[in-house]
């Protein structure tokens, strides 16, 4: 509720996992189509569906989608570890809204028309799911207060007041200069993640973690690590070289088995 209301107040998009999944399915463009923009076909879509079952691909794809939408500079993200993904990026703020357990249980029971005990069990499962997701994909504790700029207890602060507090802070501290700085950082990180995605798209998922990418603001992409053979190396460099956002590739890539 808070995230939706904040987005409405700011005139921003409200983005959650459902939004991203629907957008990717309905659009002819997908962030994962790096290096293969001309190959939009049912086969490609099926391949991506298969890839989403891979935990590493799921993580990289989700991060890339978050970075891509953050570049629009008009988004309120809910969940997905977005606050961790965007950590250190200027013109971003990571918030957590909490509520007394008793109030949460009563609210869920009322909304879903289920018994109190079932509502309690559901909330426990939801909380465990969030904790497991953040721990698995980001090696972090969702309950760590150090992750957040601000924590709001909605049992003590009304929705309108909470939205006012955050909106006023953003109006005061989000600046055009920070926007330019954030754009550069986001573009670099997005380019790195899309290059990681390409390993999966080219059937080189076995090299994920063995090859690293670093992008700089002048369009330089540095690659380091190990691929299986020269054919994989040539294919990766050729496909990356076709991307107009990459002006120069600096490769320190070896071949063989680690």
What can you see in these coordinates?
This protein is α/β, with parallel strands linked by helices and 258 residues long. The chain has 2 domains: 2-177, P-loop containing nucleotide triphosphate hydrolases (Rossmann fold, 3-Layer(aba) Sandwich), CATH 3.40.50; 202-255, Histidine-containing Protein, Chain: A (2-Layer Sandwich). Helix content is 53%, strand content 14%. The strands form 3 sheets. The protein has a 3-stranded mixed β-sheet with strand order 5-6-7. The chain has a two-stranded parallel sheet with strand order 1-2. A two-stranded parallel ribbon has the order 3-4. Residues 33-46 have low confidence and may be disordered.
Number of domains: 2
Q: What is the helix fraction of residues, given as a range? A: 40-55%
As for the CATH topology of the largest domain, it is: Rossmann fold
The value of Rg in angstroms is 21 Å
The amount of beta strand, in percent, is 5-15%
Number of strands: 7
What is the architecture of the largest domain at the second tier of CATH? 3-Layer(aba) Sandwich
**CATH class of the largest domain, anyone?**
Alpha Beta
The pLDDT mean sits at: 86
Task: State the end-to-end distance.
Answer: 49 Å
Oligomer: single chain
Which homologous superfamily in CATH is the superfamily of the largest domain? P-loop containing nucleotide triphosphate hydrolases
Query: What's the order of the H and E elements?
Result: HEHHHEHEHHEHHEEHE
Stretches where pLDDT is under 50 for at least 5 consecutive residues are 33-46
Counting DSSP H or I runs of 4 or more residues, the number of helices is: 10
Characterize the largest beta sheet: strand count, sense, and whether it forms a barrel.
3 strands, mixed
Strand line-up in the sheet with most strands: 5-6-7
- Global morphology: globular
Counting helices, strands and paired strands, the structural category is alpha/beta
């Amino acid at each position: 509720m808070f995230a939706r209301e904040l987005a409405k107040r700011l005139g921003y998009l409200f983005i959650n996992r459902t939004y991203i999944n629907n957008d990717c399915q309905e659009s002819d463009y997908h962030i994962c189509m790096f290096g293969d923009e001309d190959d939009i076909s049912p086969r490609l879509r099926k391949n991506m569906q298969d890839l989403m079952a891979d935990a590493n691909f799921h993580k990289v794809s989700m991060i890339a989608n978050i970075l891509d939408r953050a570049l629009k500079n008009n988004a309120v993200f809910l969940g997905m570890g977005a606050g961790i993904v965007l950590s250190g990026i200027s013109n971003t703020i990571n918030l957590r809204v909490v509520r007394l357990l008793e109030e949460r249980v009563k609210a869920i029971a009322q909304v879903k028309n289920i018994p109190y005990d079932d509502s309690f069990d559901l909330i426990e499962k939801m909380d465990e799911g969030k904790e497991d997701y953040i721990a698995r994909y980001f090696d972090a504790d969702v309950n760590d207060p150090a992750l957040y700029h601000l924590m709001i207890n909605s049992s003590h602060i009304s929705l309108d007041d909470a939205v006012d507090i955050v909106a006023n802070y953003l109006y005061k501290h989000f600046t055009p200069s920070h926007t330019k700085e954030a754009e550069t950082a986001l573009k670099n990180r997005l380019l790195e993640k899309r290059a990681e995605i390409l390993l999966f798209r080219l059937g080189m998922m076995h090299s994920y973690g063995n090859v690293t990418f670093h992008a700089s603001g002048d369009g330089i992409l540095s690659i380091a690590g190990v691929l299986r053979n020269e054919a994989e190396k040539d294919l990766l460099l050729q496909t990356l070289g076709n991307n107009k956002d990459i002006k120069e590739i600096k490769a320190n890539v070896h071949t063989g088995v680690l």
